[in-house]
TrEMBL record:
It comes from the Eukaryota. This is Apolipoprotein D. PROSITE patterns: LIPOCALIN. The gene is LOC102806466. Residues 1-22 form the signal peptide.
Length: 200
């Protein structure tokens, strides 16, 4: 049994870690949310543009952010996050991988980026595969004493139409997700050499 000081240390270090990564930490356990039914990972693969993301107060230092899901062997899905630092226009690219622990609920993925960071939930709440996607990550810590959340609204184009975005926000709000944590991602003045191409 860890003493109180050790527990506080874990809480503080986890909190600091997630803060700098633009996730949101709050008291209480994760909400129960439904995910996309009959999710088909094959149709979800390819390039997505980040339209909105959870951000804890500070403005994101990245613009033109994209995420590409690519198929891999052994049912592992490759995940490449790209972005451009606003301060110097330098590209940054991070690779991770995702998988589906329970094939009966294919929209509930797990994702892992760095070996020292435990895998986190990565759930596809909604998608029509060729226009928009909503990905939500919520993980309980200390048996639900606090949670760390992230969410992304993704689009197949650099712009998502306002009606779709409004509909997504209303829906997430109804599900008990705090949409006040969303901040828009700047997708202007980006390099467009790579474009999403629909799969045949
Ligand atoms: C992401 O960055 C990698 C490494 O620079 C590059 O190979 C890849 O084409 C980029 N993808 C997109 C969608 O920009």
């Amino acid at each position: 049994m860890a003493n109180r000081c050790q527990i506080i240390h874990v809480v503080v270090s986890v909190y600091l870690f997630y803060c700098v990564h633009g996730q949101v930490t709050t008291r209480g356990a994760c909400p129960t949310v439904s995910v996309k039914t009959d999710f088909e990972i094959a149709k979800f693969l390819g390039l997505w543009y980040e339209i909105e993301r959870f951000q804890s107060g500070v403005q994101s230092d990245l613009k033109c952010s994209t995420v590409t899901y690519w198929s891999n062997k052994d049912d592992v899905i490759g995940v490449t996050n790209n972005g451009t630092f606003t301060k110097n226009d330098k590209l940054t690219s991070t690779e991770g991988y995702a998988w589906i622990p329970d094939p009966k609920v294919p929209a509930k993925l797990k994702i892992k980026f760095k070996w020292w960071v435990p895998a986190t939930n990565y759930w596809v709440l909604r998608t029509d595969y060729d226009t928009y996607s909503v990905v939500y990550s919520c993980n309980d810590y200390l048996f639900g004493f606090f949670k760390v959340e992230s969410a992304w609204v993704l689009s197949r184009g650099r712009i998502l139409n306002d009606d779709t975005l409004t509909d997504i926000c209303n829906d997430l709000n109804d599900r008990g997700i705090d949409i006040g944590n969303f901040q828009p991602t700047d997708q202007t003045g980006c390099d467009d050499t790579l474009k999403y191409k629909p799969v045949d």
